[in-house]
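Box S2. Input/output pair 1.
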Amino acid sequence: MASPVERSWFIRVSPGEAQIRCSYQRHKDQVLRFTVQLEIMHEERWHPTVRYDNAHGFCHRDTLHPDGSQDKTRIFVGDVNETFTFAIEDLRTNWEGHRARYLTEMNDD
């Protein structure tokens, strides 16, 4: 049996402002594990703001807050492969809203 393939990369949605960190482990055409995380630059440091993954045995989105807390939401968009693709497209499309929410929360603290 072939070993699972692992891959990691960044999508620079706005250089120096926002990036998406992607990684997966797959066997043949099936994604086994994945993480897709939006990170924003603030005060010369990358801050994770939203993360999709399938840890804990189910696909979900973690909305991350500057105080370290997070809100977990189950995501149902098909199988793991479809959820992985959905996560990348969601963060590519909606990164500015996630960034604005996170920066507003930082200023409220």
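Box S3. Input/output pair 2.
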Amino acid sequence: MPTWLTSRLPTDEATRALILSTLAGSTSRGLFITVSVIFFTRSVGLSAAEVGLGLTVAAVASLFAGVPAGHLADRIGPRGVMVTFGVTRAALMLGYLAVDSFAGFVVVAAGVQLLETGFGAANGALIAGSIPGEQRVRTRALLRSVTNVGWAIGAAIAGVGLKFDTRAAYTAIIVVCVAISLLASTLVLRVPPVAARPKTASGPTLIVLRDRPYLALAALNGVLCIHYGMLNVAVPLWVVERTDAPTWVVAGMTMLNAVVVALFQVRASRGTGSVDGAAAAQRVSGLLLLGACVLYSLAAGVPGWAAALILFAAALVHVLAELRQAAGSWGISFGLAPEHAQGQYQGLFGTGFSVAGVVAPALLATVVVGWGWPGWVLFGVVYALAGAAVPVAVRWARRARAQAAQLEPVPA
């Protein structure tokens, strides 16, 4: 592991185990994502449209898994749920090797995505249960830095299989992905177990679904999370179709994003351990995203060298916004969730991110690439308004919790 990272690692056993598991899991994910579309089209025989549709169906199906999986983690303990989901997911990934039709692909992809979502919700509950409250945001920042390192490692390994471009090479890559994913799941067992949290009072089981301020905050975070689709979908299409910048600029901006996140996510999380600090970070993120959108729009209609400079400037502002948006989301999601229901609350907050991942590609491609600079400005304004609304929703959440505390019966 890089020296810059090990020097920042806490010495407690839980954090080290989570970091090792995250590194293995993100390496597997990066490896699979890099080769999956090519594998499904060139080896399995699906069309690009079928792969895109199948992945979208799987993503939509997974939207309903986060809250129930998080609730299960609360009730029986997050470590066991996380390991069970992770091992099952790894085993199901082998099903990709048997896929020979679109229907089979959708079934396997949906199953894998459902388990992935459940794994993530249980992971949030495990962090909440094993890491002290004041260290949770910093721990999530460390894990995100490690995730970027793992993605880079996985992508590098994938290059070997892509070079050979044979069924045997792709089969080997899938098997390696499964093995690394299994390793990630078993490494979770090194985290000390977190006790199950029984239901504390009568009333609805999934209390997060009645927590309107928290639902609003998850939705606002989801709006801000659409920006992830900007770098992956909108920007590449914008560069190729609307600017004179060289196409290698896309790879350069992606690399810039990965390096900045890996190096500075922990530093950018400072001050977001409190809910108020986290809300302020998301407000700033919305303004930075507005600036990035305006800069991206200015890259059209100028010479190639000027477009490249503008695009890199936009990418830098964009990644600064990303750092603050992510850090703010952790401070809010942990800080406003009751300790006995962290799993279902983390599952719900993650659903906002998942919804953004589903709607972002088509929405961004239509509005930004189709409309040009007005589309960029529109999205920028939406980001700024969403960020500005976060502190307002946080105050609403505080009032709702204060009122609920006043209505609780006093023990005899």
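Caption for Box S3: The chain has two domains: 13-190, 207-405. The longest helix spans residues 373-407.
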